[in-house]
Amino acid sequence: MKRRFLAFLVPAAAALAAVLAIPATSQVPPPAAPLAPQAGTGPQTRTLDSVIALVNGELISAWDVRNRMTMMIMAYGQQQQPPKEVMAQIQREAIDSLIDEKIKLQEFSELSKKQKIGADEIDEEISGLARQNKMTSEQFIKNFESTGASIQTLRDQIESQIAWRALIGGRYGKTVRVSELRIDEMLNRVKESMDKPQYRLAEIFLYAPDSASLANAKTRAQQIVDRINQGADFKAVARQFSAAPSASQGGDLGLMTLGDMRPEIEKAVLAAPAPPAVLPPIEAEGGVYIIAVMAKFDPSEAPPPTLDLVQVAGNTVDAASKLQLVKAKAKVCNEVEAAAKEYGVTSTPMNDISLGQIAAQFRGALEPLAVGQSTDVLNLEGDSKMMFYVCAKRAGAGKVPSREEIKDSLFDSEITMISERYLRDLKREATIERK
């Protein structure tokens, strides 16, 4: 089952579906010295300044760390100077992620006999991010660098991801086997859970192995919860900050019954308000969890309908009038994209969305609409405005995944565990010097 994160529909991030949510007018402020990126300066050239760490003799410079911090702040959705303790945590996480990427690339290079990831492969990944954000590659790069970060730091991250995927797939892709018995067991478990309440959850996990780091993680977790409630994209934050294997899926855990959850998470979920909701930080063995309850499905109640939508959004002072022009011109869904482009706003298809997964402030506007109708212009933060077109509406129903989907899910879980263990072993054997 290829897991998919259905993002919170909250201000500032709702129209973005890329791995990195980049607000169209974002201007990220510089972190505190000594690793302050230069915000708003446009494209940067990699410079060799102070050395922050050495990984098997390869250096990580202050330039690398500054740019990675800026990229992480971008994902965090920060619009003001972050507090000092937040910046210290982001700096540590930036250095840790750069160390991991160095180790992955070094292992790939060694086992592939110095093979390199081609620039065209990285370009294609960036093109994919641009398409998801309804931009050309040139627009995406310009928008990315308007924050003060160099596009090279994103290219470096993508290079590491491609190399690691190739390495893990090549070494273990053909050796991992999912037995028919395991598929049967999982299928029976899913069928048995169909008559129990199910929750769609997403997680962010902050690793804290001791009491000293736990106090810091709890403070950091609350700051992340606050930012998500103010509009930061949960998926983007999870990808950049979560230490859980689910980070690669934006924190998505899929559907779970209460028996599938850790006891402390189950207790918090039972006490949660109506979804979607981000719960207060949950202390657990090894760290702190941030749990998002995206939706609840109760078999005793008629499931909410499933919608195909097009979201139209703008964030300029005249956004409301532009959306009204789109509404007047586009009478059906297949006319929206062209009209949005004409009036300089974004349109984003959102398919197979349960009404129960939509934030309460927007749900009421969508609930009475028939296919072909659109909401009025909805107010977000500041100048940001949004509206929805309803393109399809289907009765909600529980869905039992196919055997192939279950096989994919079990395979992905096994590969993820192998990948985590492999990287942990490589880090244990590596010579890492932090300056």
Report on the structure:
This protein has 435 residues and is α+β, with helices and mostly antiparallel strands. Helices cover 43% and strands 17% of the residues. It has 13 helices and 12 strands. Strands 3, 4, 5, 6 and 7 form a 5-stranded antiparallel β-sheet that branches. Strands 9-8-11-10 form a 4-stranded antiparallel β-sheet. Helix 10 (319-329) packs antiparallel against helix 11 (336-342). The chain is globular and about 60 Å long. The chain starts with 50 loop residues before the first strand and ends with a strand. The model is unreliable at 1-34 and 36-43 (pLDDT under 50).
Describe the structure concisely for a colleague:
The chain has about 425 residues and is an alpha+beta fold. It is about 45% helix and about 15% strand.
- Figure out the total of helices: 13
Order of helices and strands: EEHHHHHHEHHEHEEEEHHEHEEHE
End-to-end Cα distance, whole Å, is 43 Å
Oligomer description:
single chain
- How many strand segments? 12
Estimate the mean pLDDT confidence.
80
Q: Given the helix and strand composition, which structural class is it?
A: alpha+beta
Task: Report low-confidence residues grouped into runs of 5 or more.
Answer: 1-34, 36-43
Gross morphology is globular
Radius of gyration equals 22 Å
Tell me the major beta sheet. Answer: 5 strands, antiparallel
Query: How much strand?
Result: 15-25%
User: In percent, how helical is the residue content?
Assistant: 40-55%
